[in-house]
Amino acid sequence: MPELSLSTLTVAIGSMIADREQLLARIASEPPEVDEAEPLSEAVMDIDRALGENADVYERQRQGNRTYPAYETLIAGMQRA
């Protein structure tokens, strides 16, 4: 399997964080029965799992290129306050 570039991983991670934040906002604004009808919480957990997998790949790739920030710093800068 070809390795993804750090640039591609950064874009993918940013997209997942944005999707996760949108889902969390939707969960917070909807009545509980909506989350039961649509498995929104499961979607958040799927994104969290994918972020964890991408974190491992990102950090391995970053070992040879320290111009990219550590994963924790990267996601902190992408998350809304």
Features:
mainly alpha
Task: Compute the number of helices.
Answer: 4
* Helical fraction: over 70%
Rg for CA atoms: 15 Å
Assembly state (oligomeric): single chain
The pLDDT mean sits at 87
How much of the sequence lies in strands comes to: under 5%
Low-confidence stretches: none
Largest sheet: none
Distance between the termini: 36 Å
SSE topology string: HHHH
Query: Helix- and strand-based class?
Result: mainly alpha
Shape: elongated
Report the strand count. Answer: 0
Structure commentary:
This protein is an all-alpha fold. It has helices spanning 6-29, 32-37, 40-62, 71-78. The longest helix is centred in the N-terminal third of the chain and has 24 residues, at 6-29. The model has no long low-confidence stretch (mean pLDDT 87).
Explain the layout of strands and helices.
Layout: H1 6-29, H2 32-37, H3 40-62, H4 71-78
Helix pairs in contact: 1-3
Concise account of the structure shown:
The protein is elongated.
